[in-house]
Structure formats: structure tokens, C-alpha cells
Amino acid sequence: MKYDVVIIGAGPAGLSAAVYARRAGLSVAVLEQNIYGGQIVNTPEVENYPGTGKTTGVELAMALYNQAAETGADILLEGVTEVKLTQDPKVVITTGGEYEAGAVIIANGAKRRHLGCKGEEEFSGRGVSYCATCDGAFFRGKEVSIVGGGNTALEDALFLANNCSKVTLIHRRDQFRGSKILADAVVVKENIEILYDSTVEEVCGGSVVESIRVRNKLSGEEKLLPVSALFVAVGLSPENSLFEGQVELSEAGYIVAGEDCCTSCSGVFVAGDTRTKELRQIVTAAADGAVAATAAARWMDTH
Ligand code: NAP
Description:
Layout: E1 2-8, H1 12-23, E2 28-31, H2 57-70, E3 74-76, E4 80-84, E5 90-94, E6 98-106, E7 110-112, E8 128-129, H3 132-135, E9 143-147, H4 151-161, E10 166-170, H5 180-188, E11 192-195, E12 198-205, E13 209-216, E14 222-226, E15 229-232, E16 236-238, E17 268-270, H6 282-302
Parallel strand pairs: 1-2, 1-6, 2-3, 6-17, 8-15, 9-10, 9-15, 10-11
Antiparallel strand pairs: 4-5, 5-6, 7-16, 12-13, 13-14
Helix pairs in contact: 1-2, 1-6, 4-5
This protein binds NADP nicotinamide-adenine-dinucleotide phosphate.
NADP nicotinamide-adenine-dinucleotide phosphate binds near residues 177 and 233.
């Protein structure tokens, strides 16, 4: 199959790129390996996307998907296995077939980072979770823990506190990275206890999680915290090994690009969390999608 633009990833960046590319008159395929909407489907509440008011990540994902589909973009649930970006036309090979593209927009987002502590992988899916929205309900009325100090950890702690009897939030520093409004809400929530300057050393249990071993970095003191779950919310990491050697990657593995969303490879653009940028938000991902699609349309005109 041939398309003017192939977009890799159907999160806010990819779906916004699809809308803009279709409005520029280009034929568009959007390829997604997991779930339409990307990371936002794991977000219990979205309060800072302009115009929608308070909504859920799933509702916003559906609205973004429907809007892109209505423009006539082909949105396909296929994982990308190989790309040939340095040639023209470019080729994107997926689990479902092979696509030729004039331009490619990479909008594959980033994955939840793992902690790397003892027992984490062993108990993954048996009390260790990377998605409070998905798994929080399994622990209704129980004591749980969450690790991290960014917006995800703060939002998830508040979400869990509404379902669980007690939430212990463990953060490695004494200041949160997340926004003040969320931090203030967490601090006053009566069933959230915060352990600052602390790290999770080990996840313990039998067939499921029964406790975690937490270490205070300042005193060196360790204690066993009886909890039914550990939610890990320690940030994102990009998965760009597919593109290695074809587009420039930063040391941390992000695709190097400025606000123009142009990569080091001619005809290849990047949008959203997967690129080097200051602020990873839904609104900045959507904005990237618009910029990348407009740049791709301009590139198609001149090549
Ligand atoms: P993040 O902002 O990168 O925060 C990650 C947190 O995990 C940091 O507090 C970090 O500690 C901690 N951390 C990292 N590695 C760790 C480790 N190995 N052990 C213990 N702690 C570790 O990630 P995020 O919260 O997932 O958010 C990702 C992006 O999405 C951010 O740009 C965020 O603002 C955005 N987001 C926005 C909203 C919203 O606006 N409502 C909601 C969710 C996410 P340090 O602080 O010490 O580095």
C-alpha cells in the first residue's frame, strides 16, 4: 500500500498529525501497535487540555480517534517491525504488511520506566503495576503504595486514595517534580502518607505482593511496609531502537528535533513525547502533530 504520509503511533501527537495531514489533502495511514490514544488512556483525569474541561483519558482518546477517523485517515492496529527511512519512497513494515510513504511522522510516544529493584519483575501483574487507572480497582479497600514524584505519581496517588484504604507515596527526594496544585492536593489528602527521601529496595510476597522494603536515604533506616500493591510511576523512557542509525537519537534515546519537528533524516518528522523537548503534555503532543504534519505536507510539495 502507498500513502503520502505514514504516521507511527496513534496517541494525541499521531492523531493530531493525521487530522492536519488529511486537511492538507494527503493520504494518511496511522499505525498503532497497542491502543488508540497512547499513554492518556492510563490517565484517570485530564484537567488541563484546553476546551474539554474535566474529562477522562479514555474519553479524550476516543474523541481524538473519532476526529482523525472522520477525516478519512486509515488508522490500523499494526505494530511496526522495520523501517527504511533514508530512501525515497520510505518503507514501513508492520505485523500486517508493507507500506510505502512519501513522508513519515514518528509519534510513538514513550513507555513507562521500570524501577529496577529486586522483586519488581517477579511480581509484575501480581501486585506490581504501571497503571493505577487500569489496576487500582483490584485493590479497593486495601493498603497500597506508589513510587514517584512527578505528575503521574501525584495524580495516581489521588486516584488510588479514592479507592484504597491507605496510600503510601514514596519519593526519592524531599520535593515533588509534579505541579504544585497536585502536590498540594496530595499533601492534604488524609489517607495518603508521604515518605520523602526514600526508595523502594525490594518487593516481597508469596504468590502476590505482601510488602515492600523501603529505605530512608538520609538515615539509612529500612522498614517493611505491608501493602497489597506497588504502583510504579517513575517516568517515561523512549523506545526508538527501530530508528537507530536512520534518525539522530539523544543520549537518553529520544529522537533529536526542535520545535519544527524535523529530524536529521529528510522527509522524516517527529511529534510528541518521543522527541527531545522540555514539556511533555497532551497539548504539546497535539501541537507537535500539527507542526509535523504541516512540515510533512510542505516537504511533499517540494519532493
Ligand atoms: P516525570 O515527570 O519524569 O517524573 C518521574 C518521577 O519519578 C520523578 O519524580 C523522579 O524523581 C522519579 N524517578 C525517576 N526514576 C526513578 C527511580 N529509578 N527511582 C525512584 N524514583 C524515580 O514522569 P511522569 O510523572 O510519568 O510524567 C511524564 C510527563 O508527563 C511529564 O512531563 C509530566 O509533567 C507529564 N504529565 C502531566 C500530567 C498533567 O499535566 N496533569 C499528568 C501526568 C503526566 P526526581 O524528581 O528525583 O527526578
